[in-house]
Amino acid sequence: MKNVFKKVGYGLSTAAAFVGAQAQAAIDVTAVGTEIEAAGNAASSTGTYVIAAVAAVCGVGLIIGLIRRI
C-alpha cells in the first residue's frame, strides 16, 4: 500500500511540474507586472486619502473638544 501511495505521489508531482511549466509559459509576465504596478499606485493613492480622512476626523475631534472646554 505504501508503494501505491508513493507512486501516486510521484505521478502527481511530475504532472504538477509539467502543468506548472506550461501555465508559466502561457502567462504574459510583462502585462502582469504592469497591472501589479498600476494596482500598487492606485492603492497608494487610496491610502493617502484614508490617512487624510483620519487626520481630518482627528482634527475635527480636537476642535470640538477645545470648544466644549471653553
UniProtKB/TrEMBL annotation:
Gene3D superfamilies: 1.20.5.230. The chain crosses the membrane at residues 49-67. It comes from the Bacteria. The keyword Membrane applies. InterPro entries: G8P. Residues 1-25 form the signal peptide. Keywords: Membrane, Signal, Transmembrane, Transmembrane helix. This is Bacteriophage coat protein B. The lineage of its organism: Bacteria, Pseudomonadati, Pseudomonadota, Gammaproteobacteria, Oceanospirillales.
